[in-house]
Amino acid sequence: MAPQSDSRDAGGDRPVAVVTGASSGIGEATARRLAAAGYDVVLVARRLDRLRALAQEIGGTAYGLDVTDRPAVDAFAANLSRVDVLFNNAGAAFGADPVATADPADWQAMFDVNVMGTLHVTQALLPKLIASGAGTIVIMSSTAGFTAYEGGGGYVAAKHGTHAIAATLRLELFDQPVRVIEIAPGMVRTDEFTMKRLGGDAERASAVYQGVAEPLTADDVADTVTWAVTRPAHVNVDLLVLRPRAQAAQHKVDRRS
Ligand code: 8X3
């Protein structure tokens, strides 16, 4: 599918930040913060309609794109004259079934968006990030990239893959002017993410946050991503794990509220 955009060449004098998965949640919140920090933000998501209003609001560019569609990703990359920051945020969880009974199609979809999507966009934009002379790649990982939990199987596997991309890429780019930042949040209250994971079951989705005083918000994560991106170019926040105070570890959650 040919990518669609509101044609306006991003860039000019301002640094350009590409944000995938920008139509909601962490991506949307980060796009707002990066724009406020002075970036010309290129908003990427499948739902172009949802991006348009945000693009207008923050003065960015909306680009309708499925990150799992490699030809479309390549066409998108060819359209950009400059890229300083790539925030690989597009990701999702589908299903919460045990490994024994999970739907392989859910696993495939999780691998496609979390791992292959990150690979496609990173490969396509890397030459421009290097050419910027001070590029930044942010990879949206998760505490699921480090710790397994029941019912998490496919998502845990996919996020371990996402973490592996970040760790490998940092080594491979050690002599290039591009840093690789991995942000790994724990419990973030992003209702769309949880609803998608639980097949639209609102009751189960709200139970995820039951009794937790203050789960992280999308804006908490966006604040952290923006902080990491705006450090001086020689400072690399390799890996940052972010949790709400009520979540000491994946299974150790204070639900007394
Ligand atoms: C989402 C965090 O705990 O649901 O990336 O795996 S968790």
Automatic annotation (TrEMBL):
Annotated PANTHER family: ALCOHOL DEHYDROGENASE
Family recorded in the similarity comment: Belongs to the short-chain dehydrogenases/reductases (SDR) family.
Superkingdom in the source lineage: Bacteria
Record flagged with keyword Flavoprotein: no
Protein name, UniProt field: NADP-dependent 3-hydroxy acid dehydrogenase YdfG
Protein keywords: Oxidoreductase
Protein's UniProt keywords contain Ribonucleoprotein: no
GO molecular function, one term: oxidoreductase activity, acting on the CH-OH group of donors, NAD or NADP as acceptor
